């Protein structure tokens, strides 16, 4: 008896529709975000992450309305990320009904923003999203670096050190995405997940690469993640949240069923 | 229907941010005769049939804001006479003292204190435990109470907190949870019920708790 590991379906939303992750060239429409969120809520999702991948900021208003609509009907935690750059952006999303916000690129360009946000809104609602790529060659000690712009631009920042710094500044949770794995369906990068989870005292959400339910199990047992995030395996009905939870529980992981 | 005939649930807004989800969850389970009012007006709190004290953020700011906005007398009066519920930092604010922010004196409705889990929190087998305690954990009901009606002992609720309550009077503990060690997550005395978790984020069981509160006559 104790704290359950969490399954978090992620809605990548572009122009008001749920789409497959950014890394996919062939973007498939997976439905209306509000309907999808309600379905996952009914299936027993532990939280929902809403990631606004719309390129233009003109559609931010659409996002605010969708968050409001989801929050009025879905009574589990809701994290909203994508384009969060200022405290005003955070305030709007929290007022719309988000429980947490994900800060990604803005943290890389201005780490103090994380401190400011945590002091103003509390660490419990500040999730720092980290996009990491393995940069060490075969045979070298493992090393991962932070990348921006969808994994295209290196920053020279060591991923493990960066995660520790973000937590020191006030991040209440780390959403870790492996850019090598995102969209591959080959499973999480368990090395970086474990390295960061063991280096920080706040929860770590593993993301990027889930192709089957064993990958979710591995994220917790090998990667030491506190929560696992996946998108496409749930969107197109390959697996339900309930099936995923039963598989994880059968593997000895404490789940909320 | 005029508002006079409606039963009013006042959700106290003392400027600590987002009350949207608390109000939405209450509205979701409220019937047509119940109105949910988010307010920082002591007169509205005074006139309400039921009062809910949410809590977000750090305890020092919570207590400071309650005092700055002149809400403490209204809160104490409500706790003396009508169904009253406190959530998350709200339960901590009802204790005698919290060790957060270097030590803060609280409203002292319940005997006991709020303590820090610590950044080196461990399970009994030595496994490192993350702080904050974030996610779904099981709540063991340690008391029969109208607010637990329709909810099984052991049901999971959503938690986000780094400080936990140690009750001074064990008879007031209505629920416990385990995270490294057992700790109190629900306190009850007379017409006051307080919980550490977030019912508004706890799906069906959380909504059931709010529904029970809306119909509670304040008797234990």
Automatic annotation (TrEMBL), chain A:
What Enzyme Commission number(s) does the record list for this chain?
4.3.2.10
- Is Lyase one of the keywords UniProt gives this record? yes
Q: InterPro entries given for it?
A: Aldolase_TIM, His_biosynth, HisF, IGPS_HisA/HisF, RibuloseP-bd_barrel
Biological process terms from the Gene Ontology for this record are: L-histidine biosynthetic process
The broad enzyme category this protein falls into is lyase
Q: Which CDD domains match?
A: HisF
Q: Name any one GO molecular function.
A: lyase activity
| Gene Ontology CC: one annotated term | cytoplasm
So which domain of life are we looking at?
Bacteria
UniProt KW keywords: Amino-acid biosynthesis, Cytoplasm, Histidine biosynthesis, Lyase
Identify the pathway: Amino-acid biosynthesis; L-histidine biosynthesis; L-histidine from 5-phospho-alpha-D-ribose 1-diphosphate: step 5/9
Query: Does Ligase appear among the keywords?
Result: no
Please state which protein family the record places this protein in: Belongs to the HisA/HisF family.
Oligomeric and partner information: Heterodimer of HisH and HisF.
Task: Report the function annotation for this chain.
Answer: IGPS catalyzes the conversion of PRFAR and glutamine to IGP, AICAR and glutamate. The HisF subunit catalyzes the cyclization activity that produces IGP and AICAR from PRFAR using the ammonia provided by the HisH subunit.
Protein name as it appears in the record:
Imidazole glycerol phosphate synthase subunit HisF
Question: Which species does the entry assign this protein to?
Answer: Marinomonas communis
The taxonomy runs: Bacteria, Pseudomonadati, Pseudomonadota, Gammaproteobacteria, Oceanospirillales
TrEMBL record, chain B:
The processes (GO biological process) annotated in the record are: L-histidine biosynthetic process
User: Where, per UniProt, does this protein localize?
Assistant: Cytoplasm
Q: Which domain of life is it from?
A: Bacteria
Q: Which reaction does it catalyse?
A: L-glutamine + H2O = L-glutamate + NH4(+); 5-[(5-phospho-1-deoxy-D-ribulos-1-ylimino)methylamino]-1-(5-phospho-beta-D-ribosyl)imidazole-4-carboxamide + L-glutamine = D-erythro-1-(imidazol-4-yl)glycerol 3-phosphate + 5-amino-1-(5-phospho-beta-D-ribosyl)imidazole-4-carboxamide + L-glutamate + H(+)
Q: Which GO terms describe its molecular function?
A: glutaminase activity; imidazoleglycerol-phosphate synthase activity; lyase activity
| Active site, per annotation | 88, 198, 200
Q: Which InterPro entries match?
A: Class_I_gatase-like, GATASE, Imidazole-glycPsynth_HisH
The Glutamine amidotransferase domain extends over: 11-213
UniProt keyword annotation of Cytoplasm present: yes
Listed GO CC annotations: cytoplasm
| Pfam families in the record | GATase (PF00117)
Q: Which UniProt keywords apply?
A: Amino-acid biosynthesis, Cytoplasm, Glutamine amidotransferase, Histidine biosynthesis, Hydrolase, Lyase, Transferase
So, what pathway does this thing act in?
Answer: Amino-acid biosynthesis; L-histidine biosynthesis; L-histidine from 5-phospho-alpha-D-ribose 1-diphosphate: step 5/9
Q: What is its EC number?
A: 4.3.2.10, 3.5.1.2
Q: How does it assemble?
A: Heterodimer of HisH and HisF.
**What job does this protein perform?**
IGPS catalyzes the conversion of PRFAR and glutamine to IGP, AICAR and glutamate. The HisH subunit catalyzes the hydrolysis of glutamine to glutamate and ammonia as part of the synthesis of IGP and AICAR. The resulting ammonia molecule is channeled to the active site of HisF.
The name under which this protein is listed is: Imidazole glycerol phosphate synthase subunit HisH
Q: What is the lineage of its organism?
A: Bacteria, Pseudomonadati, Pseudomonadota, Gammaproteobacteria, Oceanospirillales
């Amino acid at each position: 008896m104790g704290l359950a590991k969490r399954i978090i379906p992620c809605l990548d939303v572009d122009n008001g529709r749920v789409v497959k992750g950014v890394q996919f060239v062939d973007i498939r429409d997976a439905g209306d975000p509000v309907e999808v969120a309600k379905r996952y809520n009914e299936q027993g999702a532990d939280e929902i992450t809403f990631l606004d991948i719309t390129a233009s900021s003109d559609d931010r208003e659409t996002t605010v309305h969708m968050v409001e609509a989801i929050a009025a009907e879905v009574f589990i935690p809701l994290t909203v990320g994508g384009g969060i750059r200022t405290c005003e952006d955070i305030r709007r999303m929290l007022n719309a009904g988000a429980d947490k916000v994900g800060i990604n690129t803005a943290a890389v360009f201005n780490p103090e923003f994380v401190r400011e946000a945590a002091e103003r809104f509390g660490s419990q609602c500040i999730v720092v999203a980290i996009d990491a790529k393995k940069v060490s060659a075969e045979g070298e000690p493992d090393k991962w670096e932070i990348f921006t712009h969808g994994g295209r631009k290196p920053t020279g920042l060591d991923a493990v050190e960066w995660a520790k710094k973000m937590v020191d500044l006030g991040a209440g949770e780390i959403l870790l995405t492996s850019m090598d794995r995102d969209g591959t369906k080959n499973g999480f990068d368990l090395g970086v997940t474990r390295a960061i989870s063991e280096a920080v005292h706040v929860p770590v959400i593993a993301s990027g690469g889930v192709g089957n339910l064993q990958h979710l199990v591995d994220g917790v047992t090998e990667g030491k993640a506190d929560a696992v995030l996946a998108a496409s395996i749930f969107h197109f009905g390959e697996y339900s949240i309930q099936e995923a939870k039963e598989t994880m529980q059968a593997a000895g992981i404490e789940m909320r069923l | 229907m005029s508002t006079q005939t409606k039963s009013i649930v006042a959700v106290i807004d003392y400027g600590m941010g987002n009350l949207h989800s608390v109000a939405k969850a209450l509205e979701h389970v409220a019937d047509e005769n119940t109105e949910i009012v988010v307010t920082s007006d002591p007169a509205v709190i005074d006139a309400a049939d039921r009062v809910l004290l949410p809590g977000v953020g750090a305890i020092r700011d919570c207590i400071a804001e309650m005092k700055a906005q002149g809400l403490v007398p209204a809160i104490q009066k409500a706790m003396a006479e009508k169904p009253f519920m406190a959530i998350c930092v709200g339960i901590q604010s009802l204790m005698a003292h919290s060790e957060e922010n270097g030590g803060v004196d609280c409203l002292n409705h319940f005997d006991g204190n709020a303590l820090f889990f610590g950044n080196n929190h461990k399970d009994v087998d030595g496994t490192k435990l993350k702080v904050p305690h974030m996610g779904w954990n099981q709540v063991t009901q340690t008391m029969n109470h109208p607010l637990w009606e329709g909810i099984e002992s052991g049901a999971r609720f959503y938690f986000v907190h780094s400080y936990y309550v140690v009750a001074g009077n064990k008879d007031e503990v209505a629920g416990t949870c385990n995270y490294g060690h057992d700790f109190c997550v629900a306190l009850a005395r007379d017409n006051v019920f307080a919980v550490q978790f977030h019912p508004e984020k706890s799906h069906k069981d959380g909504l059931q708790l709010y529904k029970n509160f809306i119909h509670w006559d304040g008797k234990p």
